[in-house]
Amino acid sequence: MRYILLLLLFPLFLLSSTLHLSLGANPSRINPLLATDSASGEISGWIFNGLVKFDKDADIVGDLAESWEFESPTRLVFHLRRGVKWHDGRPFTAHDVAFTYELTKSPKLFTPYASDFRYVKSVKARDDHTVEVDYKEPYYKALSIWMMGILPRHLWEKVEDPMTSPLNRKPIGTGPYRLERLENSGDVVLKANPDYFEHAPNIDTIHYHFIPDPTTQFLMLKARKLDLGSLTPLQIEKQIDRGFKEHYRIVRLPGRGYTYLGFNLKNDKFKDPNVRRAIDMAIDKEQLIRILFFSYGKVCHGPFMPGTFAYPEDPPKSPYDPEKAKRLLKEAGYDKKNPLSFTISTNANNSTRLYAAQIIQYQLGKIGVKVKIRAMEWQAFLNTVVTPRRYEAILLGWSLGLIPDAYALWHSDSDKLGGFNLVGYHNGEVDRLIEEAERTTDMAKVGKLYRKMFALIAADRPYVFLYIPDSITVVNRRITPIVPSIIGIMHNQIDWIKP
Question: How does the average pLDDT of the chain come out, rounded?
Fold first, then answer.
């Protein structure tokens, strides 16, 4: 009898558990169309669903959509899950999807995500559970743009000003959690949605503790007041003890961003590809990773994320070879009497990047290259150096997307004021591959084109691709099942159990 009672109480025991997390800033608007800061995006992710999402292998799978097909290269049809409810109990339908799309185009709504839908011609509900999307031309992101969260038409169609609506602070979604409490400069509390279409989350409450100071976050982890957090390489190597490791599982995954040394390709010093090659070969990237990250990182070999469809099976590598670098510089006309000299510009408020610049300065000095470092406050750096392209070389970083957009960084048309082709890279074949990839919905073909781009860009060396720091996450060992993947560990959170 006692055993049967324990079995009956076990689900209630699970639903009484709380996941303790930290938040470094308050969310400004909990609205997937307006969530531009990381805090707003994180909280919105629990509350809203898109039509599709990434699974643990970074493949696109259904979310609010059960299935889909391309009826033609420019027509995508979604078949929605039945029985999905908004948090207020109203049914989710195709009309919500069509309305959300129309809202992205509204002159009353200022959203950076509107550009994702620039190739969409129309969105309409064929019936309550079928959405028809017509595109102006075939587009390789035709499916992935629908990861954007969907809003409830029955609430938002009554809103006069979507930018200031109370719904941005009292969101109603279809997601696994509902917002219970949101404090200004305070904590955020979410409660499990018992009607979630996959299943109700096993953990009943997510409590975000408002901790804007990273040092305090670390101390909270050490005090075992948080269930999950991030560590720096220094913290994991020097500042935690055996008790910490016994309480927390350490999950080390490749990071989602890389650091690079970019050349101003309009500067005569860097027009010779052998000069760029020599600089690349004279930088010991493994040493950079050892010094900066205690080896918690990987060498970056090119512009797209490892493990994705855009990454070659055997990427081209640039070996560390200072002797060959000297010979290449001599062939280009540089020697002890006429040394190559240039300035690396970077932002002063990123200490890791500044240390990287100093290590590169030392390494290049060993082959006779004279490097100066110019470090500036971030906004001044953007306004006076990066935007007007007033630099010889820059040390910066980019985030890495699971579905990359090569156009923004590598197409010749992006070499303009406000564009992200900061180094002035022009390659006609790369332009052609980018344009061909954008006009297809066959992701296998897109992958093949992107892998060709990868090889061409890596060979041209508009950047010295330096390193990808690891992401180091710690999670309470009592929580199961933790399944690390290319997209992190939170992808199966609704299945987590915290006894």
Answer: 94
In our burial notation (b when 16+ CB lie closer than 10 A, e otherwise), range 153-180 reads: bbbbeebeebeebebbeebbbbbbbbbe
The encoded tokens of residue 112 equal 């950076």
| Alpha carbon distance 282, 303 (integer Å) | 20
Residue 191 to residue 182: CA distance in whole angstroms = 12
The CATH code of the domain at 2-205+479-495 is 3.40.190.10
Mean pLDDT across the stretch 166-175?
A: 97
Rounded to 10 degrees, the C-alpha dihedral 166/167/170/176 comes to: -170
First-residue to last-residue Cα distance in the chain: 22
Domains 2-205+479-495 and 257-470 share a fold: no
DSSP alpha helix (H) spans, 332-415? 351-365, 378-381, 406-410
List of long-range contacts for 431-439, beta carbons under 8 Å, 24+ apart:
433/406, 434/406, 434/407, 434/410, 435/411, 437/140, 437/406, 438/139, 438/140, 438/407, 439/137, 439/138, 439/139, 439/140
Classified as helix, coil or strand, 243 is helix
Of 32, 40, 34, 26, nearest to 163 (Cα)? 34
Report, in angstroms and rounded to the nearest whole number, the Rg of the chain calculated over CA atoms. Answer: 25
CB atoms within 10 A of CB 209: 16
What is the rounded (10 degree) CA torsion for 468, 474, 475, 478?
130
Domain range annotation of the chain: 2-205+479-495, 257-470
Alpha carbon distance 460, 465 (integer Å): 11
Of 475, 309, 278, the C-alpha closest to 406 is: 309
Tell me the CATH number for domain 257-470: 3.10.105.10
Contacts of 439 (CB under 8 A, 6+ apart): 137, 138, 139, 140
pLDDT in tens, 102-128: 999 999 999 888 888 989 999 999 999
What is the mean pLDDT of the segment spanning 149-178?
Answer: 97
Residue for token pair 């010979």: 327
